[in-house]
Specification:
Strand order of the largest sheet: 1-4-5-8-9-12-13-14
Largest sheet: 8 strands, antiparallel, barrel
Strand content: over 45%
Number of domains: 1
CATH topology: Porin
Number of strands: 14
Shape: elongated
CATH class: Mainly Beta
Distance between the termini: 37 Å
Number of helices: 2
Radius of gyration: 24 Å
Order of helices and strands: HEEEEEEHEEEEEEEE
CATH architecture: Beta Barrel
Length: 262
């Protein structure tokens, strides 16, 4: 986030200095943006029974939490007038997670300790595709630096499982994967909306940069309770989550209305 702010300040400097020479108004533009998603909190948490090969039953407190992830945006925007515009967007929304594990009850089986240690602080990448349409409202659009707000509505497609969970354990032949939760159908389609805003700076004829903060709301499958033993598919239900994204974007202006020259 600090790096994005520094880069934005560097790019804004020439735009402010050359304000009267670059006051064109963009009408049609294509944008590519790169940034970071953050927030979301805990997706699910459950106390799960675990039976070792010796028949000993322990209990693990397992949780899955969102972590900061990469966010990439591709969009096209058209402004028929001064203020209101319309937008079509494809977003690679970062939904990476981090797992946690704690021994709630144990009779000292080494495999239980190995599994919990393997799960604790393990990370998972989960980039989903969000496709949406929306509206953009801008003010002072003839100025070289101007603010805007936006709202989008669409859907998120994901092929990665937010339920499947497993770790590595020691065996007589080395280490092996041990599944804790399974997921028979990881693919899902869920609604999505976002609301945000930012500032645009003109950096030349036909080019702009922007910095945007956005609240992304998505529905994500979450485990609702434990299974009788490890390796089964748990009960799950989609829950709504808010994730903030901070994006630095680059606009190619395909059509513009010339401003006044002084």
């Amino acid at each position: 986030m600090r790096r994005l702010a520094s880069l934005l300040a560097l790019l804004l400097s020439p735009a402010i200095l050359g304000a009267q020479a670059t006051a064109d108004q963009a009408r049609l533009m294509f944008t590519i943006g790169v940034g970071e998603t953050t927030g979301g909190g805990t997706l699910w948490r459950v106390n799960q029974p675990f039976t070792s090969s010796a028949g000993v039953e322990d209990t693990l407190a397992i949780g899955r939490h969102f972590r900061n992830s990469l966010d990439v945006v591709f969009s096209g925007t058209y402004f028929p007038g001064e203020h209101l515009g319309f937008n079509v967007e494809a977003q690679l929304l970062g939904l990476g997670t981090r797992d946690s594990c704690r021994l709630v009850a144990t009779q000292g089986a080494a495999i239980t300790s190995d599994l919990c240690s393997s799960l604790n602080h393990s990370t998972r990448s989960a980039t989903s595709a969000a496709v949406s349409v929306g509206a953009v409202y801008r003010v002072w659009s003839h100025q070289p630096v101007h603010p805007y707000v936006r709202a989008n509505l669409g859907f998120v497609v994901s092929q990665q499982s937010f339920i499947k969970t497993g770790g590595r354990v020691a065996t007589p032949n080395g280490t092996a994967d041990l599944p804790l939760f399974d997921d028979g159908n990881p693919a899902n389609l869920q609604p999505y909306y976002s609301f945000g805003g930012g500032v645009v700076a003109v950096i030349g004829h036909g080019y702009q940069v922007r910095f945007e903060v956005r609240d992304n709301w998505v529905r994500i499958p979450a485990i609702t309770g434990p299974t009788a033993r490890q390796g089964l598919v748990p009960g799950s239900s989609p829950v709504g989550k808010h994730l903030l994204s901070f994006t630095l974007g680059f606009d190619v202006v395909l059509e513009r209305k010339r401003g006044k020259r002084y």
